[in-house]
Amino acid sequence: MTDPRSDGLGVSSCINKSLENAGVSPEEVNYVNAHATSTVAGDLAEVYAIKQVFKDTSELKMNGTKSMIGHSLGAAGGLEAIATIKAITSGWLHPTINQDNLEEDVTIDTVPNVKKKVMIHVPPHVAIHPLHPHKILTRGNLDPTQIEDKVWL
Fold first, then answer.
1. Residue percentage of the chain with pLDDT more than 90
2. Within 10 Å of residue 124's Cβ, how many Cβ atoms?
3. Whole domain around residue 98: which residue ranges?
């Protein structure tokens, strides 16, 4: 009942629409804080969706906050948003811990087990919120009263 489509189509459609609404091309994004609940079905669907949207993922970094804090249900999105904001402002990506045997389809840099210093591109206004991609974390000189579902930095 809660499994996403195995091909990631629902998630990729949502991410594409969010990027379109934010006026950002996929090539401008180099970091995603993944929903990553550590279920094979969910995590692989999310990886497939991200690959569909971002095409060339060679420079993309993706980490999973839940690997460190567990799934806090209703609080998960807020806690992951805080982790994403901290990554944007500090340049440090927390690791996705307990990664030992990745599925072979996971070819994105998931920041396995050790934090990483990265210059996160926030073109003047975007980072994708974990699996709630309709919420774009933004900064810049945009007027927040004119755009819905944004978290302003």
1. 37
2. 11
3. 9-140
Determine the Cα–Cα distance for residues 126 and 75; give it in Å rounded to an integer. Answer: 22
Is residue 87 within 8 Å of 33, Cβ to Cβ?
yes
Query: What backbone phi and psi angles, to 5 degrees, belong to 151?
Result: -110, 120
Give a yes or no: residue 4 inside a domain: no
| Residue 131 resides in a domain | yes
Among the residue ranges 17-26, 37-46, 99-108, 117-126, the one predicted with the least confidence is: 117-126
Answer yes or no: are the C-beta atoms of 104 and 118 closer than 8 Å. Answer: no
Q: What residues have CB less than 8 Å from 105, skipping those under 6 apart?
A: 44, 47, 48
d(CA 92, CA 47): 22
* Dihedral sign (CA 73, 75, 79, 81): positive
**pTM of the complete model:** 0.79
Instruction: Reply yes or no on whether the pLDDT at 125 is more than 70.
Output: no
CATH number of the domain within which 40 lies? 3.40.47.10
Angstrom distance (rounded) from CA 63 to CA 89: 16
